[in-house]
Design brief:
alpha/beta, six-stranded mixed β-sheet, 4 domains, five-stranded mixed β-sheet, Mannitol-specific EII, Chain A, 11 strands, 624 residues, 59% helix, single chain, Rossmann fold
């Protein structure tokens, strides 16, 4: 399939009128819709905006490739737009954007369509091709330039498809349509200019292409992994690996190739991550990464089990209602019982890969089952955290100790040596230290239980405010995890403060876009409508598009609103056994109807405060 089967004269705009990013998106969506390519214009536009919320598709050098794969597309298509003056598209290089390719892929698009769309992305890395598009006077000129480029690439295809050398690379982006292939082509073109042989594997939406073989990896001097999504790293164990975002391969390919040629990269160790990845992606690694792996895998147990336990009280668990007892057994005796072992197991697995999982689970199990007098939950979350890190790093140490064994014994390491030694070591250490951890854990939550008045209000203010600092990020997750730990220990007030505080940011922004319309764009007002249900159901991330667009005004406003809500829930003594669900679980608030009303009052008060502050801080667009 040719690119011009998807990009036709009726989807080309040579003189865009848009002056801003939202206007550019709206104009291109309108062109596709007018050409009959979309089933649902609004749904497609929302899918485009959702992709932009993850990271801008303004890749630099005057190019933007907004794209989405959604059922709102009727026929796979490409819209081309050109802005003579250029506009601010929040491009990665900070420069104006003047060439736009909006890619519309249908939910059931076949590999042929996806490969065609991806091929266009790679063409844009050619300066001469871009110059032809900029100089085009008619729609026919655009079509001719693309056809000529395709013919040129077809002539070189046989040579390009047979890379063989000692530098390898993998490229991958979340959607696997544009950036994946642009990065691959940029690396290949730059390597060719430098006289370096390179083989690049692309992890696109149509599957893995040009897969790296075991022989390739064995012969490689170094490997570049340019990815914004998960890549299987285990085959690269023991090799120098450079991990960077996919955008870095597009903009700094020469630097990456020089590093690879010089082996200027740490050796990849299974389950680990090098410093390059931490610095370049702007994401925390190490301890935080391992902790979040445990927390994220534990959350289904928390949410499912916690809500079932809460419902069991609603149906009358204390009155021996058989259905309520069944809910309690499923939620409490099964799901909630596994919280700490699952947390510990996945922390250990993040550190040491699969060999760490079993010892982590065993360590977490000991943490909650070996108790001391007066402490029925053992060392709870504290013990689980320590057990997870202990098991993970102990397993790594055992793996290192056994590196010198004869190769003939390699098959026995994972099935015999690792589990026996790691489970034994983790179990023995946990049995020795868990009584002390239990005492500390019990004392900590005993202290929290004893807090009252202004001290409790201050703690609620902090927990609530943390939920809005990064809206689903590390600070938010830390506060929520603290609430879960308290819930597991039998304290139901902290999770109430955390959930209420997390509901406020989307609700506050929804209210702000409703009552301060002149301070928001049409797109932001539409997003604000969707923020109402997101906030109501405790999806804090619903406020991220607003925070990303104007962090200086939005984030402080949201923190203030969430902090007020957290403080009020503590002052009102709100207790909630359900760890998630938002407005759905409000009837499960302990204490009867009046407490439910007070809980809702706290959420509404914080939402109104946040909305008023952000409405006051933002500029009136009519005067801009």
């Amino acid at each position: 399939m040719k690119i011009t089967d998807l990009l036709t004269k009726d989807t080309i705009l040579l003189n865009m009128s848009a002056a801003s990013k939202p206007e550019a998106i709206d104009e291109l969506v309108g062109k596709l819709d007018g050409a009959g390519k979309l089933k649902d214009r609004d749904a497609f536009k929302q899918a485009i905006n959702d992709r932009e919320a993850q990271s801008t598709t303004g890749i630099g050098e005057g190019i933007a490739i907004p794209h989405a794969k959604t059922s709102a597309v009727d026929t796979p298509a490409i819209a081309f737009g050109r802005s003579q003056e250029g506009l601010d598209y929040e491009s990665l290089d900070g420069q104006p954007t003047n060439l736009f390719f909006m890619i519309a892929a249908s939910e059931g698009a076949n590999n042929t369509h996806l490969e065609t769309l991806s091929r266009l992305s790679s063409f844009l890395m050619d300066n001469k091709f871009r110059e032809k598009l900029e100089a085009a006077k008619t729609e026919a000129d655009v079509i001719e330039a693309i056809n000529a480029k395709e013919a040129e690439e077809d002539d070189d295809e046989e040579t390009a498809d047979q890379p063989a050398g000692k530098i390898l690379a993998v490229t991958a982006c979340p959607t696997g349509i544009a950036h994946t292939f642009m990065a691959a082509d940029k690396l290949k073109a730059t390597a060719k200019e430098m006289g370096v042989n390179i083989k690049v594997q692309t992890n696109g939406s149509g599957g893995i292409k040009n897969r790296l073989t075991n022989e390739d990896i064995a012969e490689a001097d170094a490997i570049i992994v340019a990815a914004d999504t998960k890549v299987d790293m285990e085959p690269f164990n023991g090799k120098p690996v450079i991990e960077v975002p996919v955008a870095k391969a597009i903009h700094e390919p020469k630097e990456l190739i020089n590093k690879a040629v010089n082996k200027d990269a740490p050796l990849y160790q299974g389950g680990g991550s090098n410093k390059e990845s931490s610095d370049e992606k702007g994401q925390r690694k190490g301890v935080y990464k391992h902790l979040m792996n445990g927390v994220s895998n534990m959350l289904p147990f928390v949410v499912g089990g916690g809500i079932l336990i809460a419902i069991s009280f609603f149906f009358g668990i204390e009155s021996d209602n058989q259905f309520a007892q069944m809910l309690s057994t499923i939620g409490g005796d099964a799901a909630f019982f596994l919280l700490v072992p699952v947390l510990a197991g996945f922390i250990a697995m993040s550190i040491a890969d699969r060999p760490g999982f079993a010892p982590g689970m065993i360590g977490g199990f000991i943490a909650i089952t070996q108790t001391v007098e007066g402490a029925g939950n053992g060392s709870g979350f504290l013990g689980g955290l320590i057990a997870g890190f202990l098991a993970g790093y102990l397993t790594l140490l055992i793996k290192k100790w056994l590196e010198g064994l004869p190769a003939i014994l390699d098959g026995m390491k994972t099935v015999l040596f690792y589990p026996v030694l790691a489970i034994f070591g983790t179990g023995m250490i946990m049995l020795l230290i868990n009584p002390a951890l239990t005492s500390v854990y019990t004392a900590l939550f005993g202290f929290l239980e004893s807090m009252s008045g202004s001290n409790l209000a201050l703690l609620g203010l902090i927990v609530g405010g943390m939920m809005a600092v990064d809206m689903g990020g590390p600070v938010n997750k830390a506060a929520y995890t603290f609430g879960i730990a308290a819930l597991d220990a039998g304290n139901y007030t902290f999770i109430a403060a955390a959930m209420a505080g997390g509901m406020v940011p989307p609700l506050a922004m929804a209210l702000a876009t409703t009552f301060f319309k002149n301070k928001f764009t049409d797109q932001e007002r539409e997003t604000g409508k969707a923020a109402y249900p997101l906030g109501a159901f405790f999806i804090t991330e619903g406020a991220i598009p607003f925070a990303a667009a104007d962090p200086g005004r939005v984030i402080p406003s949201m923190v203030a609103g969430s902090a007020l809500t957290g403080m009020l829930t503590m002052l009102f003594g709100i207790g909630l056994r359900a760890p998630h669900g938002g407005i759905i679980v409000a009837p499960l608030v302990e204490g009867g109807f009046m407490q439910i009303v007070l809980y809702l009052v706290a959420i509404i008060a914080g939402s109104i405060l946040g909305a008023i502050i952000v409405g006051f801080l933002k500029k009136d667009l009519r005067k801009a």
